[in-house]
Fold this protein.
Amino acid sequence: LGVHVSGAALAKDEARVTIHGVPDHPGVVHAIFRRIAESNIVVDMIVQNVSTDARTEVSFTVAASELAETLRAAEAGAKVIGATSVSHNAGVAKVSVVGLGMRTHTGVATAMFQALADEDINIQMITTSEIKISVLVDRESATRALKIVHRAFALDRAPADLPRP
Amino acid sequence: LGVHVSGAALAKDEARVTIHGVPDHPGVVHAIFRRIAESNIVVDMIVQNVSTDARTEVSFTVAASELAETLRAAEAGAKVIGATSVSHNAGVAKVSVVGLGMRTHTGVATAMFQALADEDINIQMITTSEIKISVLVDRESATRALKIVHRAFALDRAPADLPRP
Ligand SMILES: C[C@@H](O)[C@H](N)C(=O)O
Ligand SMILES: C[C@@H](O)[C@H](N)C(=O)O
């Protein structure tokens, strides 16, 4: 693929929190995350897409064990900023593909998405950087998702097994 | 902060494309990105948040010079998957904070969001990994955003200038 996919990772016991109807003007995400940081909650993914009609959604993941406390902080934050509601999913997992030199990682993302699609695994959230593509899936699908991603990038074979070019 | 923020980066000439009303079932993002990969377009950020009423939005950024071709691929993909529309913004920039050991990067994210909020810079999209927090802002705000982030993390001082602990 012209890129070096060095590994795949799984964070199996995650929970996802989403604040809905977030007003889209400066200072708003800071107000949300200040509260969360003050509660000493470790946040993993943070995802925010563009707004529609001046409102957007901010989602983030935490360890499933931190969900209750996170929801308290999120609900307090949501009130202060005038967001409309908070939702959550207690049973999610993050599957990631890690690469070096993944500057043109479009092909890698496509291959990852294909692998999951072939297994009928639904992708709930996506976030990327040049060295990492992460998707959020249902926890029930997590182990199967990691396996299929390993297979798609030949990460499940010992170097000696790989076909010679 | 207990983490090592090693640098900040700016990608100034980006364009953002969003596919709206994306049906949320397996295979859909693969259908979108297969087309984009086949056009040899290099995609930078990919952001997808959770769905509402079985539909979500998929946004991604490309070099501004690739926008026209990207829109062709995105519109073709949107048709095929039954999405409702495609929107774009030709004048955006990605500002990132890069760190090592940013495992508890909630504090770093909060500090980054505060720096931008203090400058009244609006955050359009957010994506994170353990080593990188990226936000999309208006291109007009880009240079100012980079400067304020440098200052917030004392990246604009030579090591000799930093206060001794
Ligand atoms: C929605 C939120 O990101 C807002 N635009 C902010 O800058 O804080
Ligand atoms: C929306 C899109 O990500 C869809 N859930 C898929 O898996 O392809």
